[in-house]
């Protein structure tokens, strides 16, 4: 599991597709239903694997919901009636998605990017950490704990660590899908219905919870700049499901 939320189909590698070009960068301005997003994402992954489409990063927000990864435990769903729960093929356990959280579905062709899954996950981490740095937030990685974390220090209180971003990916025919979620300004009480990623002894935070009045557009700009530093150039494109 690489100490991250990761799931791979285990399929054998195929011959490389066409040479990598600029990654398409699409942003949905309306909330996208989870099943609709997964259907569109899986169709694009198949097209990328067949050499019929280029790589895509799709930024969106979901309505409030919980997803259960392949390693999810029934006891980690604390309030099963609060929001819809969707089983998903990505690695990891339970997570929350909802308004104010930027979800980025990352569909990249790893045949053109070294066929190294561990390096790919580390690049995703570096992407999020780089975006947070644009707001003077120090994102950190913790062995054995998925996602990106920040330390919280208050006078007279012990230092605590809260999760600000989650990572959960799947690889099929050497094409990635699912991806990352960054907490910009979600309702943090919505995380109370689950044990996020199976980790109960740490909290969850967001950019706004840290005292930073960051808008979604500002978060998107930071994500795009950091992505280009880590993965290469992007080009604006329409989302798979038009607004």
Features:
243 residues; 3 helices; 10-stranded mixed sheet; 20% helix; 31% strand; alpha/beta
List the helices and strands and how they pair.
Blueprint: E1 5-8, E2 23-31, H1 34-49, E3 56-61, E4 65-68, E5 85-87, E6 94-97, E7 101-107, H2 117-133, E8 140-142, E9 145-152, E10 160-172, E11 175-183, E12 203-204, H3 216-231, E13 234-236
Parallel strand pairs: 1-10, 2-3, 2-13, 4-5, 10-12
Antiparallel strand pairs: 3-7, 4-6, 7-11, 8-9, 9-10, 10-11
Helix pairs in contact: 2-3
Q: Regions with pLDDT < 50 over 5+ consecutive residues? A: 1-5, 8-19
Helix content: 10-25%
The average pLDDT score comes to: 89
Count of separate DSSP helical elements = 3
Q: How many strands? A: 13
Largest sheet: 10 strands, mixed
Termini separation comes to 36 Å
Strand content: 25-35%
Order of helices and strands: EEHEEEEEHEEEEEHE
Envelope shape: globular
Task: Give your account of this protein's structure.
- The chain is of the alpha/beta class and 243 residues long.
- Helices cover 20% and strands 31% of the residues.
- It is built from three helices and 13 strands; from the N terminus they run E-E-H-E-E-E-E-E-H-E-E-E-E-E-H-E.
- The strands form two sheets. Strands 1, 2, 3, 7, 8, 9, 10, 11, 12 and 13 form a ten-stranded mixed β-sheet that branches. Strands 5-4-6 form a three-stranded mixed β-sheet, with no helix packed on it.
- Strand 9 and strand 10 form a beta hairpin.
- The longest helix is centred in the middle third of the chain and has 17 residues.
- The protein is globular, with a radius of gyration of 17 Å.
